[in-house]
Design a protein that fits this description.
With 122 residues, the chain is an alpha+beta fold. It has two domains: 39 residues, no CATH class; 68 residues, no CATH class.
Length: 122
């Protein structure tokens, strides 16, 4: 960077002094910048995240032992939305588990679901 160029804080625009790789004038500006950057930008994202969190709470609440059978009706009664999940896992046998973060479910026969907890959480 040329010596005569003026570096400014990415958040507030104040002139920076000190290290050549400095990006913020203070911890408060660094935190505000990152909070803004990581916030849910749209109401759509907020609503999807709300649904995913609710789905996870429902699965977790109905599965205190880590492996439980529950009916589709019970999940729907609690407000579970089957359209939203964070990942899928397909077994060699072809069974497809759906996960809301670490809480998962597998559709069984007769509108029954097996609730499970993902063993390896990153």
């Amino acid at each position: 960077m040329p010596e005569n160029s003026v570096r400014t804080c990415l958040e507030c625009g104040e002139k920076l002094a000190g290290r050549a790789d400095k990006k913020f004038c203070s911890d408060a500006c660094r935190i505000a910048y990152n909070n803004r950057l990581n916030s849910d930008d749209t109401s759509y994202m907020r609503s999807v995240n709300t649904i995913l969190r609710r789905n996870r709470r429902i699965l977790q609440g109905l599965n205190p032992t880590g492996k439980t059978r529950v009916s589709r009706e019970k999940l729907l009664e609690k407000g579970f939305d089957f359209s939203y999940f964070t990942s899928q896992y397909k077994t060699r046998e072809g069974a497809v588990y759906h996960y809301c973060y670490d809480q998962g479910y597998l559709e069984l026969d007769n509108h029954q679901y097996l609730l499970v907890v993902k063993k390896e959480v990153l």
